[in-house]
Amino acid sequence: MSDAEVPLQPKKKGLTRRQKRSLSRGVQYVVFVAAVIAFAVAADWDRLKNQFAQGSIAREMFPEVITLALKNTVLYTVSGFVVGLVLGMVIALMRLSSVGPYRWLAGVYIEIFRGLPALLIFIFIGVAVPLAFPGTEIPGGTYGKVALALGLVAAAYMAETIRAGIQAVPKGQMEAARSLGFSPARAMISIIIPQAFRIILPPLTNELVLLFKDSSLVLFLGVTLEERELSKFGRDLASQTANSTPILVAGLCYLLITIPLGFVVRRMEAKAQEAVK
């Protein structure tokens, strides 16, 4: 049989790249649905309801969980954020300074307070400071201590964020401001920093969300009944009732703040990306 008479073999067709991706996604969906069904079937919902969803206990938490615990949590968070923002701005400018000792001090601060757990900072403020300076009182009592502790932690992260934002502003902005007669300090305050904050607003808002959760560490400062935040409030009621429903309600109150803030962060990031395009 000649070569011309040899029948052609049909080519084997495999899956295309798109078909492989579709198949992979389908398998992942099936695995996810199967895991959810397995969890729903295996869980003892009656025991979960009795331990975490007692309506009578949840109703007894209101309105104090909002008017007291949530209010204190918001106050602690906002005050710590303000202290951290001011201190972080100072440290960021020190990090960008042409003076060597300023840069060195800022770098040491950032490395130390980013490396230490926030819990240790709270213990330091609540225990070490009174021992080191007998008779010294931090203004604002517990609120002042929490604001200082949260601010010290947040400032280390905010300083790096602000520094990155300042460096992201085109150098031509400073040169243009100087050509108009602005001093370096005035150009930084009036021209550079406002532009930097438009760039770093999303990560700063994300830092606010993290501080909101870190405010639960206030319990290590020894707060009174009127100074309790959400976590302390929920833990106390859970101990009194021998039930975990107060902890679940406190967690839902956290979500009332963190979910909207997270949505705001995503929206700001999307707008920032659109502006770049």
Automatic annotation (TrEMBL):
Sequence ranges assigned to domain ABC transmembrane type-1 in this UniProt record: 70-265
Keywords for the protein's UniProt record, in alphabetical order: Amino-acid transport, Cell membrane, Membrane, Transmembrane, Transmembrane helix, Transport
Membrane topology term: Multi-pass membrane protein
Subcellular location: Cell membrane
TM ranges: 26-43, 74-94, 115-136, 142-159, 180-201, 247-265
Entry similarity comment: Belongs to the binding-protein-dependent transport system permease family. HisMQ subfamily.
Protein name: Amino acid ABC transporter permease
